[in-house]
Design a protein that fits this description.
With 682 residues, this protein is α/β, with parallel strands linked by helices. 28% of the residues lie in helices and 23% in strands. The strands form 8 sheets. The chain has a 7-stranded parallel β-sheet with strand order 10-11-9-12-13-6-14, sandwiched between helices. It has a 6-stranded parallel β-sheet with strand order 15-26-25-16-23-21, with helices on both faces. The chain has a 5-stranded antiparallel β-sheet with strand order 2-1-4-3-5, with no helix packed on it. Strand 7 (192-194) and strand 8 (200-202) form a beta hairpin. Helix 1 (101-113) crosses helix 2. The longest helix is centred in the last third of the chain and has 18 residues, at 640-657. The chain starts with 5 loop residues before the first strand and ends in a 6-residue tail after the last strand. The protein binds a DNA duplex (12 and 12 nucleotides) through residues 7, 9-10, 12, 14-16, 18-19, 22-26, 43-47, 50, 52, 79, 82, 84-87, 656-657, 659, 662.
Length: 682
DNA sequence: AGCACGCCGACT
DNA sequence: GTCGGCGTGCTC
């Protein structure tokens, strides 16, 4: 067959694993000028009339002319020089080149690491098209490129130099991070700061903004990635004070599609920008990327809930390698994952100059003179401190979220069930166990209610509402403010108030809390998960960082290494100990893991090839709900690429093969599912 | 997904 | 001899 002219290599936007490679199409003459890498295209697929959406990845010469360079990092050696007859490109959707080469390379690599589809990553990276927004952007670009681009690539409005750049950190640490492309793990200064505009934010947010402004001054872009919108608001407030407003793009799945697309398109401009957003911001296009800064990488919101479930931390690590930019993980605590990278020497460590930290007092439960305080499960020392502080300003009580470890209550009067010897809360160690005291361990074999003499227990989850009631009685006359998922309060004045908040929902008071009580520690730790310790320490440190200078932070009813790590403000000692344990057990993140779920036959077929992967072992398979079984494979990081490649091949084989037997019309045949690095796995 | 290709039972 | 069943595989 004779072929001349140009060939478009196209990624089909489809969730089907069989289609996750590049397809070659002939570029018709009339599309030659529009068909450039990154544009959205429509292409015929199989039979005429069917068209699929896709992205033009690259333009190459026809195979018999010079192949213009192999596609970087693709897994489609088969189609690199497709020999069949080529169909023509159907159309180019618009001239906006929305998928940049850097984002494509990132999506391909991130998907390959997780045995997933590149198009699933691209869906996170490129928001849905909004025709009006795109037309406006194209029109504006047409008028500005003629003038502005010719003038200078640097921002026209010079940002004011930072007044006290990185005042909290040693000279030569963060100020040179962008220029020297450093990879760092940064301990955040656990304090609040008041901005000129009147907002109070965590100092960490200001540090993030300072880093981005430093990059901007060097003519380079930044990605600032934070878990939720409350964190975004804090960084945004700091950026408002430090950076020109038109150099900041906020990328947030919460905003309306039009706003989201507008912010995305702004990132495509050939000028340095600051991109602020949640986990998907790690995939934002950026001109000359100089910095990726990720706040609080242990927050579960950094984990992507959509297949292939790639954590923002992992995507950031891949992107840093491709862009050769600075990469900083900032937090009040250190995750085990980051600790591993520190011990490998991959990340350097930076701490604030001064070792200032909140005064955390582990407080054991003891007999309380006040009846109501006892009912509200507050020890006397903590109750006293809170009562004194409440004279002068806001006091925070952090409680477990409803639905955490369930509590036991009296079936007749609905009041929380208390241990008859120590007044501690009763709980169930396991579903089948006898109720016992969470504090002293005494079995509540012949329990009776102290309020109504009832003898029957029921399981309840105690929300902020009930806690507020109890605490209100313990602190009569106090103004009570509830902050949880349903009642969101962001900012708070300096007036006295008793704030009852679930973790993560604490409002930020101007000047900080004068006392903080961390309650329900046992309930948080009662959860069965590998990560309860890490999660709880992270939550406690983040909350303690809201304390006013010199304020007491009381950790109630929790001792041991967690309390020591908090009290000495050395959370990395906990991370190091935890990592040592995981190495011993061969648990992640000492090794990587993947779960393989499907019918017994499908799972067995997927596992056969894996036995030649170096260092890999298989746990299970075990039953995972009637027709399904689940196996877990563990493998060293060095074997990750091979494991992912083999499992992806198994997924493709399975997808091509699976057919629903016609006897059962509504029961779709279960697909083989593979999930890498699931944090909830063990 | 959708649609074509292909290899075995009852029909003009 | 052929029409069509749906199991199998491919889509540039």
């Amino acid at each position: 067959m004779t072929r001349t002219g140009l060939v478009a290599r196209v990624l089909i936007d489809s969730p089907l694993p069989q289609l996750d490679h590049l397809f070659d199409y002939r570029i018709p003459e009339e599309l030659a000028t529009l068909a450039v890498p990154g544009v959205r295209v429509r292409v015929p697929l199989r039979s005429a009339g069917r068209v699929a959406d896709g992205y033009l990845i690259e333009v190459v010469g026809a195979p018999d002319s010079a192949p213009a360079g192999a596609a970087a990092g693709t897994l489609d050696g088969l189609t690199a020089d497709y020999q069949g007859a080529l169909s023509p490109l159907d159309s180019v959707v618009s001239e906006a080149a929305v998928l940049t080469p850097a984002v494509w390379a990132l999506a391909r690599r991130v998907a390959d690491r997780a045995a997933g589809n590149a198009s699933d990553i691209i869906r996170l990276a490129v928001p849905p098209r909004q025709v009006r927004v795109e037309k406006a952007w194209l029109a504006a670009r047409a008028t500005t490129t003629a003038t502005a681009a010719a003038v200078a690539p640097s921002p026209d409005a010079d940002p004011a130099p930072l007044a006290f750049p990185f005042a909290d950190y040693p000279a030569g640490s963060l100020d040179t991070a962008v220029a020297e492309r450093k990879r760092l793990c940064v301990a955040a200064e656990p304090a609040l700061m008041l901005l000129p505009g009147g907002d109070t934010i965590g100092r960490w947010a200001h540090t993030m903004a300072e880093l981005a402004v430093t990059a901007l001054a060097e003519g380079r872009s930044s990605l600032l990635i934070v878990p939720d919108y409350r964190d975004q608001d804090q960084v945004q407030a700091a950026l408002d004070a430090l950076a020109p407003a038109d150099s900041v793009s906020r990328v947030d799945a919460r905003q309306p599609n039009a706003d989201r697309y507008r912010a995305f398109l702004a990132c495509l401009a050939p000028a340095p920008r600051i991109v602020l957003g949640n986990r998907s911001a790690v995939y934002a296009p950026a001109h000359d990327l100089g910095l990726i800064a990720l706040w609080d990488d242990g927050d579960p919101l950094h984990g992507e809930p959509l297949s292939p479930y790639v954590h923002a931390r992992d995507a950031a690590l891949v992107r840093q390698g491709q862009a050769d930019c600075a990469l900083l993980f900032l937090g009040h605590t250190r995750t085990v994952e980051v600790q591993r990278l520190v011990e490998l020497g991959w990340l350097g460590e930076v701490r604030p100059t001064r070792n200032r930290h909140p005064r955390v007092i582990p407080t054991d439960f003891q007999a309380t003179p006040d009846q109501q305080a006892r009912a509200a499960r507050i020890p006397s020392a903590a109750w006293q401190a809170a009562r004194d502080a409440l004279q002068h300003g806001p006091v925070l009580v952090q409680v477990a979220s409803p639905g955490y470890a369930p509590m036991l209550a009296c079936q007749s009067c609905k009041k929380a069930a208390r241990c008859t010897t120590c007044q501690g809360p009763l709980g169930l160690a396991s579903a089948a166990a006898l109720p016992s005291c969470r504090w002293c361990g005494a079995l509540a074999a012949d329990w009776s209610c102290t309020h109504c003499e009832g003898t029957k227990l029921r399981v309840v989850t105690l929300g902020t509402g009930r806690t507020a009631e109890e605490l209100g009685r313990a602190f009569p006359g106090a103004r009570v403010i509830i902050a949880d998922g349903d009642h969101q309060v962001q900012q708070l004045g300096a007036a006295p108030a008793l704030v009852i908040a679930t973790r993560g929902a604490e409002p930020i008071p101007a000047g900080g809390y004068l006392a903080i009580l961390l309650l329900d520690g046992e309930r948080m730790l009662a959860r069965e998960s590998l990560r309860v310790g890490d999660d709880s320490l992270r939550a406690w440190c983040n909350t303690a960082a809201l304390a006013a200078p010199g304020a007491s932070v009381m950790l109630v009813g929790v001792g041991g290494t967690l309390a020591r790590a908090l009290n000495s403000w050395q959370p990395e000692t906990h991370a190091a100990a935890e990592l040592a344990d995981r190495r011993q057990l061969r648990f992640p993140p000492a090794v990587r893991v993947a779960s393989v779920t499907g019918t017994a036959d499908d799972v067995a077929a997927a596992l056969v090839d894996l036995d030649r992967v170096a260092g890999l072992d298989v746990l299970g398979p075990v039953d995972a709900g009637d027709p399904l079984v689940r196996a877990i494979v563990r493998f060293p990081y060095a074997s990750g690429d091979e494991t992912a490649r083999l499992l992806k091949a198994a997924i493709v084989r399975n997808a091509a093969r699976r057919r629903r037997p016609k006897g059962a019309p509504f029961r779709a045949a279960p697909t083989l599912k593979v999930r890498f690095d699931d944090p909830e796995l063990l």
